[in-house]
Amino acid sequence: MNKFYNAVVVLFFLAGICFSQESQKIFLSISKEFKGKTGISILYIGEENRYCSTFIKTLSRDLNYSGYFTVQGLFSNKTTDVSLIKDLTEKSEFVCIVRLLNQQMIEIKLVDTDNSERLKKVYPISTLPADNAHSACDDIVYYLTGRQPIAKTKIAYVSGGSGSSQIFIVDYDGENKIQITDSPCIKDFPKFLSDDKLTYISYKTGYPSVVLFDLANKQEMPIFSFPGINAFVDFSKVNSEMVVVLSKDGNPEIYLAALDGNILRRLTHSSGIDTSPCFSPDGRYIVFSSDRSGRPQIYIMDRNGAGIRRISYGYDYAVAPVWSPDGKYICYLIRTQGIFQMVIYDTGSKKSSLLPVKIGWSESVSWAPDSRHIVFTRRQNYKCSIWIVDVFTGELRQLTGDKENCYSPAWSR
To answer: Which residues contact 83 (CB under 8 A, 6 or more apart)?
Structure first.
């Protein structure tokens, strides 16, 4: 019991430290300063249809959630009306025309203000309407921006009390929640390895151990289960490697390991606590948190552990860094006025700025594949819930209810 208690205390201390189509032209200019949205209208041509109704409502929501668009209206007409399309293109920068083809396919056609066709796609109605809408939104976002879309992504998170907690997975829009674990022990910090595999920390053995969970066969396989701390895994996107925090040699240190758990190299040798490692998208660098200077701050090192340099300045307590998928930003947490808030570090300008959104206490941040949205834990009135923020517009969206006590979200890759 004492070993279990000590492991829990140390891990939570660490968590506190880490907390017919044209060529693909990019039509929308996206930058850090991009705050405006592009107007788009959706026009359904045909008889009323439940399938198409669900498709259009989901597509509208997806486009709004993307951060790039404002859906300015949903319209319908039984037949093609050229004058109506022309009128809509004069009011919106784009019009998405939706129609059902032979009761077998659903078609979208994107036209611009010149009434020129920019994108045309068809989807089989054998697929659920919401799934087709997610695909349509992703096709539109990628075609117009060149950015990685998110409408078909998922988010894993933890829900439960002090005695037992379970891992859940939900669509990015909050739909289709499923519970993937049911064992009676504490679990935390899920992390996607792939669409069908994720890792998390389990206290099944008393110590915090890192386990790999296969979503297809619901099998749990221990990866790191040394006595002491086994936590905070991150995976390289270019190499078959991961980084992990282990205290097997006494002090919590960062190690490089193969995906099968074989230790390749110890990366840090500090008398302080080194934690929360995260690979850069190109796999060349690792950002992490360390109190080696006396107070927790953010550092970057080369993949081999060399070239350690500090990047956080002006904050007394900085923890839990996470690299954006495009490599341009690092989000980390600072403690100020008694709460944790998000800071965005620009890897180009090497400047940090506090996210100018009134969120309150923030924890456990995870980037979306679009490098625009962040999912995080919001702590309020001693309860945790999952929220999403657009770092460019500041828009907030709540993913889980206030009474569910959900935390430690992770966006799929």
So the answer is: none
CA distance 70 to 68: 7
CB atoms within 10 A of CB 314: 9
- Reported for 168-175, long-range contacts at CB under 8 A and 24+ positions apart, including other chains, are 168/406, 169/215, 170/399, 170/400, 172/65, 172/368, 172/388, 172/411, 173/61, 173/62, 173/65, 174/399, 174/400, 175/130
Under 8 Å between Cβ of 158 and 408? yes
The conformational region for residue 176 under phi > 0 = left, psi -120 to 50 = alpha, else beta, is: left
Task: Name the residue among 269, 279, 233, 273 with its Cα closest to residue 252.
Answer: 273
Backbone angles phi, psi at 103, to 5 degrees: 55, 20
How far is 45 from 81, CA to CA, in rounded Å? 9
Return the SS3 of 145: helix
**Cβ contact 125:106 at 8 Å:** yes
Across the chain, which has 413 residues, the per-10-residue mean pLDDT values are 44 47 39 65 92 96 96 91 86 93 93 91 94 97 94 96 83 96 91 95 91 93 94 94 95 95 95 95 97 95 97 95 98 92 96 87 95 95 92 94 92 95
Residue type, 266: R
Tell how strand 373-380 and strand 339-346 pair up.
Answer: unpaired
Instruction: Note the pTM of the prediction, 2 decimals.
Output: 0.90
* H-type alpha helices, 19-81: 50-66
Cα 399 from Cα 69, distance rounded (Å): 20
